[in-house]
Structures are given as C-alpha cells and as structure tokens.
Amino acid sequence: MARIVPPMGQPGCAVQTCDRVAVSRGWCDTHYRRWRRTGTTDDPVRGPTVCTVDGCEAKVDARGLCHGHHQRLLRTGSVQAHIPLGRRRQPEVCAVDGCDGATKGHGLCPRHWWRRWRHGNVDAGGLLKIVTSDRMDVESEQRCCEPDCAAAVVARDRCGGCYKVALRRGQVGADPDVRVVTGEGHLSHGYWKVPVPEPDRHLVGGHAAVGEHRLVIARLLGRPLELDEQVHHINGDRLDNRPENLELWSTSHPGGQRVQDKIEWAVSILERYCPERFQNILTAIDSSE
Questions:
Q1: Would you kindly state where each structural domain of the chain is located, as residue ranges?
Q2: What percent of the chain stands above pLDDT 70?
Q3: Mean pLDDT across 177-190
Q4: Which of 49, 108, 194, 287 could form a disulfide with 112 if both were Cys (CB 3.0 to 4.6 A apart)?
C-alpha cells in the first residue's frame, strides 16, 4: 500500500498508513501513545463486540462479557450461563415481622433499613413510630431508662429528650444546670455572669450583664477588652474570679511570615501592653540618630 504523504514541509508519521504529522520518535501522537501503552504501533486486536456467553447478544462491557454477566462473575466467580439474566427483585413488603411498609433495600422498609444501618439490628429501640396524616403514635410499651422519666423509647432505650442530652453530655445529668440564678448573678455555661453597674458599662461594650472574670480584668486595665483578648483562670476554676487568679491572654499573631509583617505586629503589641517601654525604645532610637 502506498504511503500517504503529509502536508508539504512537515515530517510524516513513520507508520506507512498514517497521514498525520510526526511529533515524537517519528510517530504521530496517536501511534506514539499506542507505543507507550502497548509497546507496538500495530493496530490493536479487536475483541468481540457481543457477549461471549452462549445465547447472550448483549453488548460487551468487560472481559468479553456483557454488564450483567460481568457483574455476576465478580459477585459469584462464575457467569452461570445456565441461569438467565434478570433484575434481582426484592420483596414488596418489609421482611420484618409485623411491618407492612414498602421495601427500600435489603428487603427492609426505609425505617427498618435506617435502623439496621445505624444500630446493626432492626429490633434496636423497640417498635417504630407509626406516623399518619393526623397523629403520631408510638406502639411500644418500652419507657425511657432514665429515672423519673416515663416517656416512650425513641433510641437506645431513651426518649427523644434524654437521648439528645446523652449525646451532648455523655450521660443524662452529667452537667449541672446551664443556668443557676441567685440574687447576685447566675451561672451561664460554667461562668459566673453578673449585672454591670451603669458607671462600668463602658468597659464591657454597654452590656448590662457579662462574665464576672471579664469585668474584673476590664476594671484592672481601665479599658474594654479587645476582640483578640481572653481571660484565663489560673487554677482552672471558672468561678474563682479573684484578680490574682486571672490572667489576660491574647490570641493575636502576625498575618504572615514576612519580616515587615512581624515588625508591625511587634510594634502593635508593644503599643498596647507596654506603652512605657515602647516610648523608651522610640526615645533611644531618636537619641542614637
């Protein structure tokens, strides 16, 4: 067969039947990639286009098999040619005794399927909630395992409220009440929150009540706390708000690692916390000049 000549002035592919321009090793891009992949530029041997299983005329998907027989081979290790292909159909009704819900997967209705996925057992937590258009009922005699709670079980032997508390705290009643009110203030998430007198409200952004630890430090500094400042309890007791037990912490840090950024950050820290020392440094610089 005569060689096909590429456009004038451009080298052609070394393969005689190819009219493409050579790009590497004398071959065009297609034949070069074929050589990289297979070690030869010859045309690949085409496999069958129809499934090789007797009696199956479906299009080949992989390994000379159609999609159905290929999946069966992966699943069972054999194409089982004597068994006709067909969609595996699950029962229309949930396989759990006493449940007539429509199936979603694994022969289970959506609710039992979810319970099996979450707990590993379709019987976990007793009977399911039965929801209708006008009411919700719980067909279960199980009651919450927590003392002084007679609500019906929803999950893990607890009612809905106790179950959520247990997830958040580890166990029901593990933490004290979030808010304990007395005449001088109240407990809020582990910190003592107190009312702020009118003359001191400029120290706390105008708030009528704040954490006592922040008010104590603001009074000592004579200014409001910045957004990047926190108050740390030295002994770990959040209710011990004595001045000697409180430390001012700062979360400020330079935005980058360039020398100029660090210098500007250092200057701002000195101006905020050591104005006297910063002024001394400026005076020393001026005198040296």
A1: 1-41, 90-124, 179-250, 259-288
A2: 82
A3: 67
A4: 108
So what's the pLDDT on residue 184? 78
Q: What are the pLDDT digits (tens) for 269-282?
A: 888 888 888 788 77
The HSE-up count of residue 194 (CA atoms within 13 Å, CB side) is 15
Q: Give the integer Cα–Cα distance in Å for 28 and 199.
A: 85
CB 117, CB 104: distance < 8 Å? no
- A 10 A CB-CB count for 76 gives 10
Q: Nearest 5°: phi and psi at 61?
A: -110, -45
DSSP category for residue 231: E
Q: What global pTM score does this model have?
A: 0.38
Match 């067969």 to its residue by tokens: 1
First to last CA, the chain: 91
* Structural contact between residues 163 and 171, judged by C-beta atoms closer than 8 angstroms: no
pLDDT digits (tens, 9 = 90+) for 215-232: 999 999 899 998 889 999
Contact assessment for residue 56 and residue 49, using Cβ atoms and an 8 Å cutoff: no
